[in-house]
Structure formats: C-alpha cells, structure tokens
Amino acid sequence: MLKAEHLSFRYHSQQRWILQDFSLELAKGEVVGLTGPSGLGKTTIGKLLAGYLQPTQGKVTCNGQSLPSSSYCPVQLIFQNPELAVNPRWRISKILAEGQPPSDDLLAALGIHQSWLNRYPHELSGGELQRIAVARSLNSFTRYLIADEMTAMLDANTQALIWQVVMKYAREHEVAILVISHEATLLKRLCVGVAGRRHRLIDLSTLIYQIR
Fold first, then answer.
1. CB atoms < 10 A from the CB of 11, how many?
2. Helix (H, G, I), strand (E, B) or coil at 168
3. Spatial distance between the Cα atoms of 211 and 194, rounded to a whole number of angstroms
C-alpha cells in the first residue's frame, strides 16, 4: 500500500500552505481519481507521493517503508509535459534503458516505432514523447503509477491509445493508479461506477471520498 499520512507542504520562501493535512491510501490494483480546481495542490500531491518533494509535515510510506532515495522507485510519476521529464541530451534508447528497458510488445502496443529509438527528445512530437514516458514507467519495478494530467495535451486518439495500454498493463500486473485530472469524462470512465473500493474518485475541493 502507498500511504500518505497528514501531508502538509509549503516552500521555505512562502508563508502560504500549498497543501494541508491530506491523507490517502492507494492499495494494489486500485484506480483512484483525484480532481479539483487549479491551485489546490493536486500536482504537489503527485510529487510528494513519488518522492520529488518532501512534505513539510506528515509522511509518505510505500509498503510500510520510506521511499528509496536511490535505485528504482516503485512509485512512478508521469508528468503532463514529457519534455520536462527526460534528459534532452540522451537518445530515446538511453532514456528507455534508464530503468528497465520495456519489451518490444509494450513498445508496439503504444505505437512506438523502432526508428524513434535513435532520436533525441526534440525530434519527437509531444504525443510521441509522452508514449516514451509511459513506456519507461511501465516495468516490473513499478507498483504505483501517478498520472498527472498524463494525456491532457494530446489528441483524442492518442489519449485513448495510451489509456487503453496503461489500464490493460495495470490489470495484468496489479499496478495501482492515481489519476490526476480535470477531465470529468475520463475520471468517470476510469474511477466511478465500479463496485467496491478498487475504483474511486476524490474531489480535492471537498476532500470527500465518493465511493461507488
């Protein structure tokens, strides 16, 4: 279980709290939606859960332990803008090999062409580079996936393709997903209307869990 307990966060140079007293449990195989207006700390939550930020108060644990400070982290965060998450000086093949190289089947399912692997990030479109970011995150080390507006900037066909692959992989490998999004249609499709606790929606503006 990925567990956030009473998280609060603010930058040292600011007096205003970006996030206060937020708690969340994400269990194996769950799909959880996180929504709410801009400025309430959704992206901050994603970064805290993945270890990119350290909470000012509270703690994050993964399977009862702190997130590892080295080696591969079982919590992977996919950003909305993939160009910010890759080294622009590396070829795509090196970027994919940074963790555990994805299988040819996964690359094919995401529509990644072998010819892309010898290119640099700036030689790919945003949609193509986001597929690379997704492929890099889906490997046997990953147990929890944080998708922060992962497909918000992509066309409808690319969105559908990526989510189809991600959800299929998550079901087969029991990977839990936190979906951070403003898109009501996407959240309804992924997180609401499924019996039990495994799929649920959190509205950050009220901090009320809507269990279906």
1. 12
2. helix
3. 9
- Contact present, 48 and 7 (Cβ < 8 Å): yes
Q: How far apart are CA 112 and CA 104, in angstroms?
A: 9
What secondary structure letter does DSSP report for 161? H
Nearest to 136 by CA among 183, 164, 169: 169
Q: Is residue 188 very low, low, confident or very high in pLDDT (cuts 50, 70, 90)?
A: confident
Q: Write out the two tokens for 194.
A: 């499924």
Fold designation for 2-211? Rossmann fold (3.40.50)
- Concatenated DSSP letters for 73-137? -SEEEE-SSGGGSS-TTS-HHHHHTTSSPPPHHHHHHTT--GGGGGS-GGGS-HHHHHHHHHHHH
- For residues 140 and 156, give the distance between their C-alpha atoms in angstroms, rounded to a whole number: 28
Q: pLDDT per residue over 135-173, tens digit each? A: 999 999 999 999 999 998 888 889 999 999 999 999 999
The whole model's pTM is what?
A: 0.88
CA of residue 12 relative to chain centroid, distance: 26
For residues 74 and 28, the answer to whether their CB atoms sit within 8 Å is no
Q: Would you give the DSSP letter of residue 196?
A: S
Distance CA 104, CA 97 (A): 13
* Cβ proximity of 141 and 99 under 8 Å: yes
